[in-house]
Specification:
The chain has twelve helices and 15 strands. It is of the alpha+beta class. It has two domains: about 5-205, 3-Layer(aba) Sandwich (Peroxisomal Thiolase, Chain A, domain 1), CATH 3.40.47.10; about 210-375, Peroxisomal Thiolase, Chain A, domain 1, CATH 3.40.47.
């Protein structure tokens, strides 16, 4: 087995930062009415800026694959070129197409060489799953390096025009033509961007991050789906997929919109997350004193106090000054969020040799969690 190091991190955030007051200029008004939920949601999530790969006319400026390609290009230097890449492992919630895979589409843009591909689907854990594939490949010696990515192109999913047919349908039914909170909630949470890690079997440069271990957990065996797109949730908790609906229902019922069962989210996301943190640290015999930086991916600042309280109750008291988050300035970028946070920390000038970094990524899709423990070299 070989040691595995993150030797460089690249990122790409499209266009200019978008302020809270500009969001509907990009995403549009539904039913020509400003969202009543927007200010409440933004007040709770404490996001003040984010990035969209669309212009104010709703036209795409980048595809997801292009965002990812651009982040990967930030990894290139005199010691690593596109021709040196041996494995490309990409994670995303929002691939541009159903088929081919995200990694295939990114590889097509890179135009570099024949190499191994892996694509990880899911929600926020997709980026961590892509990382684990690369981690295991380099660790076993299957490849000497791996490029792992997390990316999202969520803005196009949240454009008002994608919901107009549903609102018209509600009007025809004489129901209140306001988008259900489970859909409107996510319009003000999500944003676009991409991050890329270069993994190698030796450290290099001023700072490298050794991946000591990675752990992952799923509670889908006991819990219903919480966040979903491409279907709808039935009264019995099952998900009816989009291809079992009539095509005219796809627009009328906004089947491809992201939806969140907020009651289920509030009940379980922190509870299962804290249990996963406890299990991963216990399994690897890591005391809290051996965590210098805690990078939790949270979708909203609303969860921070609750997460801290439950961690303390579980005997995991990580002082808040050791927490590192950039949610406020880049928004919730799903599978890319942990990449963007670690990139900012790695380039902050704060890290010292020997520092320990603990990454924690939850996924509310059906309650999955991924952890990683790093040492600064």
């Amino acid at each position: 087995m070989f040691e595995v190091f993150i030797t460089k991190i690249g990122k790409y955030l499209p266009n200019e930062a978008v302020s809270n007051d500009e969001m509907e200029d990009y995403l549009g008004l539904i039913n020509n009415t400003a969202s009543k939920a927007r200010r409440l949601i933004l007040r709770n999530n404490k996001i003040v800026s984010r990035y969209y790969a669309i212009d104010k006319n709703g036209k795409s400026t980048h595809t997801n694959a292009e965002l990812t390609r651009n982040a990967i290009q930030e990894l290139y230097d005199e010691s690593f070129t596109a021709q040196d890449m041996e494995l490309l492992s990409c994670g995303t919630t929002t691939p541009d197409v159903l088929v081919p895979s995200q990694a295939s589409m990114v590889h097509g843009l890179l135009k570099n060489r024949n190499l191994e591909l892996n694509s990880s689907s899911g929600v926020c854990c997709a980026g961590m799953n892509a990382l684990k594939f690369g981690f295991l490949s380099v660790k076993t010696g299957s490849t000497k390096n791996a490029v792992c990515t997390g990316s999202e192109k969520l803005s196009s999913w949240m454009l008002s025009e994608k919901f107009e047919s549903e609102v018209v349908n509600l009007k025809n039914l004489e129901e209140q033509p306001i988008l259900a909170f489970k859909k409107d909630f996510l319009r003000w949470m999500l944003s676009d961007g991409a991050g890329a890690f270069l993994l190698e079997n030796k450290p290099k440069g001023n700072i490298s991050l050794k991946i000591e271990w990675m752990e992952a957990y799923s509670y889908a065996y006991e819990l219903e789906t919480c966040m979903y797109a491409g279907g709808d949730k039935l009264e019995n908790g099952e998900i009816k997929p989009w291809n079992d609906y009539n095509p005219n229902q796809w627009l009328k019922e906004s089947l491809f919109a992201f939806k969140q069962d907020v009651k289920l989210l509030d009940e379980f996301i922190l509870q299962k997350g804290v249990q996963s943190v406890f299990d991963s640290l216990s399994k690897n015999n890591i005391p809290v004193s051996q965590i210098d930086y805690f990078l939790p991916h949270v979708s909203s600042h609303y969860f921070v106090d609750g997460l801290n309280k439950l961690l303390i109750e579980k005997g995991i008291q990580i002082p808040i000054e050791k927490w590192f988050m950039n949610l406020a300035t880049v928004g919730n970028v799903g599978a890319a969020s942990i990449y963007l946070a670690l990139e900012e920390l790695m380039n902050s000038g704060k890290l010292k040799k020997g520092d320990k970094i603990f990454l924690c990524v939850p996924e509310s899709g059906r309650f999955s969690y991924a952890m990683a423990y790093l040492t600064v070299y």
